[in-house]
Give the backbone structure.
Amino acid sequence: MSHDDPAPAVPAHPPAGGRAGTQMCVLLACFHGAKQAAKIRGPLAKRITSGGDRVMDQVILKVDAKHKAQVYDPRRTVVGVLTSALTWGVFGLLAGGLEGLGVWAVLGAVCGGLYAYYTEHLLTKNELKRIGGRLPGDTSAIVAFVQGADPRRVLSSAASCEPATASAAAIAADLSARAYSGASNPLETSAAPAGAAPEAANQATELSMLLVRFTGEHAARQALGKSGAAKDQDHKAPQAELVIETNEHGRRRVIDPTTGAAAYSKSDTISWGLFGLVWGAVAGFASHGGVLSSVKSGLVTGILWAIFGMVAGALYGLWAGRAVSARRLKGVGPLAPPGTSLVVAWAEGPLNEETTGRWPAPGSQRLILRFNPAAGGALLEV
């Protein structure tokens, strides 16, 4: 396959209604114009849902004329704004009454929104630099995760938006998958049967998505723990975005290995505590209470602000920090049946046998979804 051309169509074709058993579709639509994807995100979601499918999440990628790439999750950005406005507003109300409520709510909304917009994703600066350098300038893309049984219908929903390139991957409950390209006339371009060994890596691949399913409710977390912390791995190692655990009764739990409530609570406890310590010390000194009074004021304020930071951080991690909730994953339950756990990870460039074997476990299953450059954007391949 050349660098710019889509993969040739494979001869196998599923029934017209879509491949039976498909639980999740990943849609990738690329557009001319750095702001175009953000503009059509809402209309595209309406077209998808009008066909009976359900959009679980959307991610926007922008590449400006200088090939600087930026990625953000609109849902996380909105939740980040609302969560910070609420928690900071409550703190302002307790500290300064109604006037404090208004000031701190606005300040929290701005800070929380900006933080979520620029940081709530796994891609590093190096990965964004690589992606921006390989994709056309002044372009944008949408990656949508859709619950639906017909990948061709999901892909066709983007046709009226006139994408430069469009492709979709349909993932079945057995972790087999098929990829299609072309919004106006979807054609099957690649397939990955259940249990098949990974093919030779395409060196043109810019980004890879890895799904690994383990037998055992906690097996995924155990495998991640044995593989070592992400900071001890090379930059091309898969970075886990979330772990989905399903107990024997079918109850699901979503865990974010890198953020989530625990991580944000710890971080905010320290940062807010230190900020409160300094603020209290300055306030005590300004009131001419002397050094002892200044230290006492700083310690008391620091402790109070640390407690607030712990609560605010936990809520932010619970609502805005997680990639997705168990409730939103209800429709793709067959991907994580009772008594199993599933890891969703991302990696820069292509994945090979060495990198995918970092989490070995008896009976585990895996699927690689590749984002390959193409004329006008990128295409999905499984």
Residues 23-73+121-259+323-381 form one domain. Residues 1-20 have pLDDT under 50 and may be disordered. The chain is about 40% helix and 25% strand.
